[in-house]
């Protein structure tokens, strides 16, 4: 991958490179506001033709409100492979996954551990950091950072990689955390040498020696010098490892320090950890590792081993098979409490459908014989391979109005962890109930949000449209059939009224037209043909087509209307709000409009995070700074 860091510098490109090549289970521990999460999802969907990529991204944040930023980011990407959860990252629960009827601990192949930090690396952009900086900020965060990172590596699969990052340059928040983690891992973890994966990036190796300073300016070289009345502020894990041999074996120089002048960015710190064996305190987990991760393990370990053999590999003590089983049972503590429910074989009857969610509507999977489904299947001629088991609703009782869909892996996670997970959101909307009811042969119309997932399974009601038709569809609210090309007209004539798919295939012989396929949801009425596409997406497609869009009522767009219904409401007054002409500044527009929603959200999210953690909590300014840094790097 040739990425020019000089021109498109920013931490996001770095993450892209470091995390590239993964396919499976990904955890983003401190994910809000979600720009990196979005990248992770995009990577999963690298192949547009795969409606359900293997694997998923679980995006976590401690702050409930900030979780909705993540939901917003995820919605923009229309992925059935993302789940937003709301936990304290330092105690994020161990999840289970069902592997051919056997419950196993869910280990992640990749973890992004972008911890709360002092944000001192962002001081070129954030004036507040100058005003509020003291060494105390870092000292206060160190413990939390170490706890989060520790929780992360516990849940990492053998051979998996965890990226630890901050936008701070203080070693107390960086090398000290990594060194402590390496030390207590007793060889289970190793720092990866990623230098060859980052061609063109300027950076400085991690440091091995540092001192610790108190707020009042007192320096300490070692833990033994710290007076007892200071031993709550300064902790032993903040100091470099004394033992020179041990320290050398850690290869702290493999940590990456990006200084602001290197690429003209903020300053930040990144370390990539590879897990070679279970953490010493959870040795027994090993037998529960998925076979899948074993495959990854082979690749990554051999790559890491190529460096030097300085790190001692701890042999796992042999243990009797029955003891292993006991241990694994113990690990899944919640399981025993759930054993009653788990005894059920096959899909549970709808009455016993499990409920998920936390202060959220429940997630209820459709039962196999739900009468809702056959008419839908028939109307859209769904392929027999369509995974209807993955359909869910957000209501347990009453009429099902929206049908959502998740990937089969996320279904597995949802079903097997309902008691321990606070799920904020997952799944994409694929069908909506039609207010006009059954008179159109099918009570459910397609939803734009899920159309790219659904489209490969649909074998009926697809109309191929030309680029001019797409323009008409996107700019007019309810155009008469006569406004469309004669081909489209012909196609539609014999088609029953109701929900349709409008498909545009690019024509390579006309290079100045839109060169990517577009799939729109639409409605075939008596005399008209319309697209059911949310306004923001309409604008997006129009910009891609080089049509300039001015909007008078930008401010009125709020979070909901952008992310929720692709309904009539959104498409109302489309024409009033838009004015079109050919656009030479399409790119500029795109940049502006794309960034704006995040900013609006950021502003509305300047809410003090509630102190949900018992221990040290990062100050709200720090948390904000981190996000601003994230955003600025996206913009850059
Ligand atoms: C766990 O997930 C599997 C696979 O998705 C499913 O068959 C099983 O019913 C789930 N277990 C429970 C208790 O729901």
Automatic annotation (TrEMBL):
InterPro entries referenced in this protein's UniProt entry, alphabetically: MeTrfase_RsmB-F_NOP2_cat, MeTrfase_RsmB-F_NOP2_dom, Pre-PUA_NSUN2, PUA_NSUN2, RCMT, RCMT_NCL1, SAM-dependent_MTases_sf
Keyword tags: Methyltransferase, Nucleus, RNA-binding, S-adenosyl-L-methionine, Signal, Transferase, tRNA processing, tRNA-binding
An MF annotation (GO) of this entry: tRNA binding
Binding site for S-adenosyl-L-methionine: 30-36, 61, 88, 114
Reaction equations catalysed: cytidine(34) in tRNA precursor + S-adenosyl-L-methionine = 5-methylcytidine(34) in tRNA precursor + S-adenosyl-L-homocysteine + H(+); cytidine(50) in tRNA + S-adenosyl-L-methionine = 5-methylcytidine(50) in tRNA + S-adenosyl-L-homocysteine + H(+); a cytidine in mRNA + S-adenosyl-L-methionine = a 5-methylcytidine in mRNA + S-adenosyl-L-homocysteine + H(+); cytidine(48) in tRNA + S-adenosyl-L-methionine = 5-methylcytidine(48) in tRNA + S-adenosyl-L-homocysteine + H(+)
Keyword NADP: no
Main localization category: nucleus
GO cellular component terms, semicolon-separated: cytoplasm; extracellular region; nucleus
Family: Belongs to the class I-like SAM-binding methyltransferase superfamily. RsmB/NOP family.
Start and end residues of each SAM-dependent MTase RsmB/NOP-type domain: 1-276
PANTHER family linked to this entry: NCL1 YEAST -RELATED NOL1/NOP2/FMU SUN DOMAIN-CONTAINING, RNA CYTOSINE-C(5)-METHYLTRANSFERASE NSUN2-RELATED
Catalytic residue positions: 167 (nucleophile)
Superkingdom of this protein's organism: Eukaryota
Subcellular location field: Nucleus; Secreted, Extracellular exosome
Stretch list, region Disordered: 317-348, 555-576, 596-636
Region forming the signal peptide: 1-31
The protein's Enzyme Commission number: 2.1.1.203
GO biological process, one term: tRNA methylation
Group of enzyme by EC: transferase
Pfam families reported in the protein's UniProt record: Methyltr_RsmB-F (PF01189), Pre-PUA_NSUN2 (PF25376), PUA_NSUN2 (PF25378)
Biological classification of the source: Eukaryota, Metazoa, Chordata, Craniata, Vertebrata
Designated name of the protein: tRNA (cytosine(34)-C(5))-methyltransferase
């Amino acid at each position: 991958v040739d990425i020019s860091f000089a021109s498109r510098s920013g931490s996001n490109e770095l993450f892209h490179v470091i995390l590239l090549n993964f396919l499976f289970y990904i955890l983003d521990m401190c994910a809000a506001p979600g720009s990196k999460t979005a990248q992770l999802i995009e990577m999963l969907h690298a192949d547009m033709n795969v409606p359900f990529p293997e694997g998923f991204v679980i995006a976590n944040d401690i702050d409930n409100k900030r979780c909705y930023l993540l939901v917003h980011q995820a919605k923009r990407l229309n992925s059935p492979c993302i789940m937003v959860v709301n936990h304290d990252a330092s105690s994020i629960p161990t999840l289970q996954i069902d592997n051919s009827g056997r419950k196993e601990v869910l280990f992640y192949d990749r973890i992004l551990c972008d911890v709360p930090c002092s944000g001192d690396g962002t001081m070129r952009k954030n004036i507040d950091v100058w005003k509020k900086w003291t060494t105390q900020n870092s000292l206060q965060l160190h413990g939390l950072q170490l706890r989060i990172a520790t929780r992360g590596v516990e849940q990492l699969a053998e051979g998996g990689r965890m990226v630890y990052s901050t936008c701070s340059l203080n070693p107390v928040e960086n090398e000290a955390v990594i060194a402590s983690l390496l030390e207590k891992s007793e060889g289970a973890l190793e720092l990866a040498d990623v230098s060859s994966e980052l061609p063109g990036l300027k950076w400085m190796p991690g440091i091995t020696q540092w001192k610790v300073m108190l707020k009042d300016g007192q320096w300490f070289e070692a833990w033994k010098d710290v007076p007892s009345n200071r031993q709550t502020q300064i902790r032993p894990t903040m100091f470099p490892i004394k033992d020179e041999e041990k320290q050398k074996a850690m290869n702290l120089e493999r940590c990456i320090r990006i200084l602001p002048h290197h690429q003209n960015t903020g300053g930040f710190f990144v370390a990539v950890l590879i897990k070679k064996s279970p953490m010493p305190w959870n040795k027994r987990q090993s037998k529960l590792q998925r076979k899948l991760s074993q495959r990854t393990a082979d690749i990554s370990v051999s790559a890491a081993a190529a460096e030097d053999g300085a790190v001692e590999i701890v042999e796992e003590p042999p243990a009797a098979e029955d003891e292993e089983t006991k241990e694994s049972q113990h690990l899944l503590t919640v399981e025993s409490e759930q054993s009653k429910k788990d005894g059920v074989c096959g899909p549970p009857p709808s009455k016993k459908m499990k409920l998920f969610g936390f202060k959220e509507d429940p997630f209820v999977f459709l039962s196999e014989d739900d009468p809702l489904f056959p008419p839908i299947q028939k109307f859209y001629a769904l392929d027999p391979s369509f995974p209807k088991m993955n359909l869910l609703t957000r209501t347990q009782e009453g009429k099902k109005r929206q049908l959502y869909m998740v990937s089969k892996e996320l279904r597995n996670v949802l079903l097997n962890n309902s008691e321990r997970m606070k799920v904020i959101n997952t799944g994409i909307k694929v069908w909506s109930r039609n207010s006009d009811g059954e008179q159109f042969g099918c009570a459910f119309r397609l939803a734009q949000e899920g159309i790219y997932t659904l489209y490969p399974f649909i074998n009926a009601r697809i109309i191929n449209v030309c680029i001019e038709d797409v323009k008409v569809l996107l700019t007019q609210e309810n155009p008469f059939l006569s406004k469309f090309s004669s081909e489209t007209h012909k196609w539609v004539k014999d088609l029953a009224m109701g929900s349709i798919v409008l498909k545009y295939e690019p024509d390579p012989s006309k290079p100045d037209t839109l060169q990517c396929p577009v799939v729109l949801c639409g409605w075939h009425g008596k005399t008209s043909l319309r697209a059911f596409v949310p306004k923001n997406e309409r604008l997006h497609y129009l910009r891609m087509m080089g049509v300039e869009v001015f909007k008078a009522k930008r401010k009125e767009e709020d979070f909901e209307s952008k992310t929720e219904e692709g309904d009539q409401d959104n498409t109302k007054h489309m024409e009033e709000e838009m004015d079109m002409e050919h656009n030479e500044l399409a790119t500029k527009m795109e940049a502006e409009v794309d960034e704006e929603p995040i900013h609006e959200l950021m502003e509305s999210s300047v809410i003090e995070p509630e102190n949900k953690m018992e221990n040290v909590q990062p100050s709200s300014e720090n948390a904000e700074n981190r996000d601003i840094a994230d955003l600025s790097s996206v913009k850059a």
